[in-house]
Amino acid sequence: MAPGTACMDSFSSRVARHVKSGQYAMALELFQQMQQEGITPDRCSFVHVLNACAGLQALEEGRHIHTQIRESGYESDVYVGSGLVDMYARCGSIDDAWSVFSRLATRDVVSWNAVILGYSNCQQGEKALELFRQMQLEGLEPNLVTFIGVLSAWAIDKGRHVHKQIIQSGYELDVCVGSCLVDMYAKCGCIEDASRLFNRMTTRNVVAWNSMILGYVKCGQGQRALEVYRKMPHGVLEPNPVTYAGLLNACSSSGALEEGKRIHTQIVQSGIDSDVYMSNALIDLYAKCGSIEDAWTVFQRMSTHNVVAWNAMISGYVKCGQGQRAIELSRQMQLEGVEPDHVTFVGLLNACASIAALKEGKHVHDQIIESGCESDVFVANNLVHMYAKCGSIEDAQSVFDKMPTHNVISWNALLGGYAITGRGKEALQQFEQMRQEGVAVDSVTFIALLTACSRAGLVNEGFCYFEIMGSVHGISATPEHYACMVDLLSRAGHLGEAENLVKTMSSEPNSPVWKALLAACRVHGNEETGKQVAKRAVELDSTKAGSYVLLSNIYAAAGKWDLSRSIQRQRLSRGVRKEPGRSWIEVNGKVHSFLVDDLNHPQRAQIRAELRRLFPLMKEAGYIPDTKFVLHNVPEEEKVMRLCHHSERLAMAYGFISTPPGTILRVFKNLRVCGDCHTATKFMSKIVGRTIIVRDAKRFHHFENGLCSCNDYW
């Protein structure tokens, strides 16, 4: 053997060893040294260094080596050509891979596998399938690598066909092929097929276990995913980051907080808790399970935060009812140089919607326009939703009109906006337009329609839509639809019909249905029916305060204070906390929140002085306090004082003293506005010459010049 040949063989074998051990950079460095010493690479050296380029994703270096291969005359060699196809495919340059492949005079199974796998990885499954068929037409039998490479690209019908070929080839029981088949069925949503195949496997690797765990998560069966994990042979197989990520998703989707904490402990013990991907999954788990403090602890421990981590925290704070904190966090994120993406914007829009921060929402809208995300239908739908929730239906309609296409979510957001603002007839007109555009309606569409009819007193129209929902659109009525119908009838004074409708429900009435009927009993003072309805509502959900409060209020309004207090004691003995009435107003970009009789605001003295100034002017204009809305057994004078210090009035008074005359005020309340505050706000709007927009738990009220948009039907 010539000395030059011996040196070349030595370099080639050393390059091969480095590639085999995953030391790609060292392999590439050695190849360059070989050329510097004047040694001409042979076909084996070129193939090894192409593998190194693929491992490093070094596309430009690979192109340079391709030039050398062409100059050396090896490009048409099937062995080297297959290496080039594989390098380009693994570096994501599928067009270059195809260009080399199509020029090969001879193609072996290795070159076919490389190009098929390349198209599969580039999410071009149809092209991969076409090549898979062509390969067999040219007389080449697929091997184990072919099947492993292509399974992830198939839709389920084509995947089943490939599965049959795998059985015929005798590869089904191979652990790698079997794992890929399980993964294919799981990803296609055929979880039972995946499970049957998984159970038939005599040997399972961690990929197979992960596929089952992730498959159940994808199908919304988080608990089944956790059950699979408990059966995994720990000690024989160790969970990897993919396993843990799937388990955290399983816990977050099923609300399994304690299980998630145990898995967090295992992640720490495995030493992978510092991984950014794992930390993001932990934040998502805690945020979705309502443990925002734990999410914040994980977030703070991260050395760097990417946009995914920020998004998880922002969404978590929104979910936990801390919209203002979510907005503050987004500002901190941008100060740290992290650019928001479309997920960030959606989280911020939901934050603004949750606290009705219209000014902040408009600022987010400006950012969306600057980023070019306005054309994203997901973002645009949330813009419509935000404006609707903030009571600016005109802005919601404007965004909607500019959208190039509308899906059912777009329409539902718009219809819901018209419903909550009490513009029932406009909602019905929009629905007809939706039908003309041929957009398929869904269950949520009819909830919006029935709510719109309820808020506007459109009883006949409501019954018509309730009927066609099933007869024309094939949508079965859910308890939510029945709750809307009960509300519609009750508001119109048809309490008996509402009771009969509940009795004729095809399914068992749930808590919201009974609560809707109970609220009607409260409005109409129907004590006897209220007792029976409240009993059913509490039986179905004894952990929520609403039913106790409504029944207690019925007794209080009837002057039966002992019974009212008895219901309150029953609620407290069961550990059920009542949500306090809270109102808030946005002034100069900051949200100010008030509770009833609030003494915490720094300008409380000026706020109360403004209410004292307005009270005689209101009485002079004809206002008479309706003290039946004070559900406490106290003297009449104290009842009047309590009415004056309801949270919505404190928020309005702050708005009067903090904004220029003529400024529109937007006040929001978490509970239903009481009848006396509704009357008082009409008087205040006329006396101060302001438009006052109030959103309570049920709808928007636009007060102007002594009148309300609801026409006192609410």
UniProtKB/TrEMBL annotation:
The keyword Repeat applies. Residues 622-714 form the DYW domain. PPR repeats lie at residues 7-41, 108-142, 205-239, 240-274, 275-305, 306-340, 376-406, 407-441. Pfam families: DYW_deaminase, E_motif, PPR, PPR_2, PPR_3. Signal peptide: none annotated. The keyword Electron transport does not apply. InterPro entries: DYW_dom, E_motif, PPR_At4g14850-like_plant, PPR_rpt, TPR-like_helical_dom_sf. PROSITE patterns: PPR (PS51375). Keywords: Repeat. This is DYW domain-containing protein. The lineage of its organism: Eukaryota, Viridiplantae, Streptophyta, Embryophyta, Bryophyta.
